[in-house]
């Protein structure tokens, strides 16, 4: 019996002022505890109503859009909790506060080629397991990880259903984690206990060994240190609409976010190209990057696409 919880629930129907008066004797920490409990119960009840006795695996296999468009159903299928507070607490604990939310963790691992953070082995296993809520059951993260590996190898219906509802950043993060985990499992105790800077260098070395080679044209730039870049053409329509102020418009475009808001448009043309590590990208590719805007004189007698090719 929890008398404070019973009191808290009994005044939820009251207005804010009346509710505050009835609960004013409780310390803030206790109110926070009660709020979390009630919110968990509401989330669980809502999820049960959404599932309505249906088999989520079968639902995702037959109508994945229904699961994708309903976050609680998608999270339930992936094994995640629908209560973000609990999930973020788990992520913070497992990552030693390097990532304080699941979104930060997934996005960072998805961009491992661009940004290296000193995540330990369990953080990558959690990502591979779709941020499974290990704090909510008896199974350990290692047990869930081994089960997910086997399910992926066998391509069970449950794994096929999960793959259908995973979003792109999560797919990339899981792929990167799967590349890294075997090598990280082989690290010695001394390597695992390295100071942050040395440990990050170890992760970068592992990434270069575990991830595929860059595309040949990227590898050539890395080897030759020659300038490279893209040629941009201002279309006839854009020139008519923005030509007088194109520089500021282009700057705005480069700073705008590309779906799903993971990088800006200026980076979207090349930033996601695999080059085996942040050092290659920032110390070699980025300083050599150029933009070429040749003067374009449109020929109104030609269709624009034909004019560009000419």
What does this entry look like structurally?
The protein is built from 20 helices and 4 strands. It is mainly alpha-helical. The protein folds into 3 domains: 1-53, no CATH class; 56-210, no CATH class; 216-309, no CATH class. It starts with a helix and ends with a helix.
| Sheet/helix structural class | mainly alpha
Task: Describe the strand arrangement of the main beta sheet, using strand numbers.
Answer: 1-4
Q: Name the quaternary structure.
A: single chain
Determine the mean pLDDT: 86
Helix content class? 55-70%
**How much of the residues is beta strand, in percent?**
under 5%
**Count of spatially separate domains:** 3
From the alpha carbons, calculate the radius of gyration and give it in angstroms: 25 Å
Distance between the termini: 81 Å
Tell me about the biggest sheet? 2 strands, parallel
Q: So what's the overall shape? A: globular
SSE order = HHHHHHHHHHHHHHHEHHEEHHEH
How many helices? The count is: 20
Would you identify the regions where 5 or more consecutive residues have pLDDT less than 50? none
The number of strands is 4
């Amino acid at each position: 019996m929890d008398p404070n919880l019973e009191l808290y629930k009994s005044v939820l129907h009251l207005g804010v002022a009346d509710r505050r008066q009835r609960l004013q004797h409780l310390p803030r920490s206790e109110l926070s505890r009660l709020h979390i409990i009630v919110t968990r119960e509401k989330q669980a009840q809502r999820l049960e109503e959404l599932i309505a006795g249906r088999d989520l695996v079968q639902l995702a296999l037959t109508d994945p859009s229904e699961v994708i468009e309903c976050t609680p159903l998608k999270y339930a299928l992936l094994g995640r909790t629908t209560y973000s507070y609990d999930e973020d607490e788990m992520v913070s604990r497992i990552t030693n506060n390097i990532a304080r939310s699941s979104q930060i963790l997934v996005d960072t691992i998805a961009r491992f080629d661009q940004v290296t953070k000193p995540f330990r082995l369990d953080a990558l296993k959690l990502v591979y397991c779709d941020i499974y809520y290990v704090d909510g059951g008896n199974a350990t993260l290692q047990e869930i990880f081994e089960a997910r590996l086997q399910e992926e190898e066998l391509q069970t219906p449950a794994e096929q259903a999960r793959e259908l509802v995973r979003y792109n950043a999560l797919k990339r993060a899981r792929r990167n984690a799967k590349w890294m985990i075997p090598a990280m499992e082989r690290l010695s105790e001394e390597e695992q206990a390295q100071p942050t800077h040395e440990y990050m260098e170890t992760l970068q070395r592992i990434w270069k060994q575990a991830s595929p080679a860059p595309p040949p044209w990227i590898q050539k730039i890395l080897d030759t240190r020659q300038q490279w870049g893209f040629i941009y053409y201002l279309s006839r329509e854009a020139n008519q609409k923005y030509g007088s102020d194109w520089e500021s418009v282009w700057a705005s475009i480069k700073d705008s976010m590309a779906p799903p808001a993971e990088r800006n448009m200026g980076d979207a043309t090349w930033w996601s190209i695999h080059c085996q590590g942040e050092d290659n990208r920032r110390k070699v590719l980025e300083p050599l990057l150029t933009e070429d805007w040749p003067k374009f004189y449109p020929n109104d007698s030609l269709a624009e696409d034909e004019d560009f090719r000419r």
